[in-house]
Each structure stands twice: as structure tokens, then as C-alpha cells.
Amino acid sequence: MSSGLRWGVLRAVDCGLVGPAGRWSWSCSSRVPVRAASGPGRSPVNVFDRRMKKRQKNWAAALEDGHQYDYLRAEVGSRVADRIYDVSRSFPLSLDIGCGKSHIAEHLNQDVVQRMLLSDVSEESLRRRRGGHVPTHRVLADEEFLPFKENTFDLVVSSLSLHCINDLPGALRQIQQVLKPDGVFIGAMVGGHSLYLRCSLQLAETEREGGFSPHISPFTAVSDLGNLLAQAFAMLTVHIDDVQIHYPGIMEVMTDLQGMGESNCAWNRRALLHRDTVLAAAAVYQEMYGHADGSVPATFQILHMIGWKPHNSQAKPAKRGSATASFGDLSQISRPAGSKN
Which of 193, 200, 231, 274 is the S-S candidate for 301 at Cβ 3.0 to 4.6 Å? Predict the structure, then answer.
């Protein structure tokens, strides 16, 4: 076992996307309370083969040229870090869930985050974490089964790791539990309208093989995410970023997604794609979405979320019926003197 790598978990449970530097363009060690690991029972919802996701992430992290596939995680990680700076407070202890190579911590300093735990299901990703100014400690942990005690962290962050969670409501509740009262969760995940690739593959497979199988993992819709967050957090904020990347063709999209460790890991995935189907999908993709220069776009819908753990100091809405004025009275408000309207 390598020095400094703490094996804090439980059963290995994993996830899925698909698509190079030069080929695309943009349009501390500390003591932390740890609880006993969760049991081996399955999640109530079992869409993703988490063991497969772990293998995919380990394989991608071990690539010699793996850094050239980090562009999307690096971009979204920097945007999550910007949102941490927007919160006007300092966080003594924070947790990054599904940290990968630590694309959030590398943008932070100790004035904002004093210490950070990096957790991921992939030990290879943890070994290859990026450097930074914040002291970090690595914990091998599954996002679905957090091995930390309640009321431990001032801040929990996550970037591009929650889209392949089987029990997303349960994962959000666990995040809320490990936060201290008035602690904040800041996260980003891939949303439901990502990747034109899905439609192209379905059309091509239907035409060539008489039916289609899932090749892209299902994603969460922004409307559903708001409802899920409301079950665990107060003072919610959810908004959407669209990150569009241009590739030479569909094969580069699929190659890069594999290099990101984001191949499909749904249980109902189909293992192989026929060559004729891939060629047909490339033609469909180019015809439907391609640019005049021959390149094709891949759009990643990124759902950004902020939620606070409830605390008595937080502002609360007034009770229903406590208003002292009516919207119907607005028309009776006198206009300022000299107003022409």
C-alpha cells in the first residue's frame, strides 16, 4: 500500500460518458472521524455497474498520455472553484467527492480552504492527483457510501462524479449528513441534454441492425435535480452551463470519452458496436450537427448546484398569510412627482 493513501472503504461500486489536446477548441494529512463502512447491500436503484466504472477510471488514470483527456474535468473543476471563492467565508475542513485527479483543489488556496480530503473510488486517480496550495489527504471511498461521521465538514464539493450514482437521493442525503450545520455543498454534474452522440448511434443502429441498445449512460434532468436537492438542503441554487467542444469526427469523441474514463457502465449496455454501425453513426452525426469545416460539436450540459445544510441562523421565509400588503395595492402607489409615465 502506498504511503499516505488511506483505504477507507467498503465495496467498490462505479459510472459513463464518451470522446485530445490539439484536436478540440472551446466556442496534508489530518485526523478525520470515520464511521464503519456500509454493508454490501445493493442500492434501491441499480442502473450502473459501479465495479465497471471503477475499472474504467483506473484504466483511464493509468494512461501515459492521460493528461490530454483532462480538459473537460479541468474546466469544470475551475468553475466549481470559482463558486467556492464566491462564498464569503473560510472553510477549515472540506471534502471533494469523486475528486479524480483533484481538479478543484489545484485552484484553491488556504485563505479559503485550509484542509481538504480527496475521496474517489479509483485508487489510480488518487495516486495521480494534481498538486496545489491546500494540504490534502487521500481516502479511497465510494460516492454512494461515504465513510465519514455526521457533522464533520464545513464544505463538500463534487465535480463530474455524481452522474453515474445509482442512488442519487441517498448520496445527497449522505452529503448533507457529513456537513456541519450551515455547511455548504457545491457541485457540478453532467446533465440530461449532453452529447449529440446518443441520437446518432440510435439512428445508425436502428437503420443497420433493426433496433438500438443504450451506448450512452442516462443523465439527470435539471428539473429532477432541483427536487432532489430540496429533499436534503436549504437555500438552493441550480443553474446550467453548456460546454461545447469541437472534434474532427465521431471517433475522436468516442476516444476522448474513453480516455476520460466515461465509457458507458449501465448494466444494460451493449459490449460491442459493429463497424458498419459506427460508420453510419459518423455520417449521421456529420449530417445533423457537423460544421462546414468538417468538424463536429459535442455539447456537455453541466448542472451546477449549491445547497446549504439547515441551521437556525439562516434566513427563513415568512409564514403564509403574514404579509401586510397586497399585490392588488400596487396600482394605488402614487408615482414620484414629475413622472411622465
Answer: 193
Q: Which three cell numbers stand for residue 171?
A: 448520496
d(CA 228, CA 149): 22
CB 175 within 8 A of CB 161: no
User: What is the spatial distance between Cα 241 and Cα 329, in angstroms, rounded to a whole number?
Assistant: 39
Of residues 245, 294, 46, 32, the one with CA closest to residue 137: 32
Q: Indicate the DSSP class of residue 31.
A: -
Place of cell 469545416: 293
Q: pLDDT tens, 229-287?
A: 888 898 889 998 888 888 888 888 888 988 999 887 777 666 666 677 777 877 777 78
User: Order of strands, edge to edge, in the sheet holding 113-120?
Assistant: 5-6, 136-140, 113-120, 91-97, 153-159, 179-190, 296-308, 234-247
Among 3.40.850.10, 3.40.50.10470, 3.40.50.150, 1.20.120.30, what is the CATH number of 50-194+219-249+299-311? 3.40.50.150
Q: Structure pTM?
A: 0.76
C-alpha closest to that of 243 among 118, 72, 125, 107: 72
Note the helical H segments in 10-144.
Answer: 50-61, 71-86, 123-127
Please write the tens of the pLDDT for every residue from 55-104.
999 999 999 999 999 999 999 999 999 999 999 899 999 999 999 999 99
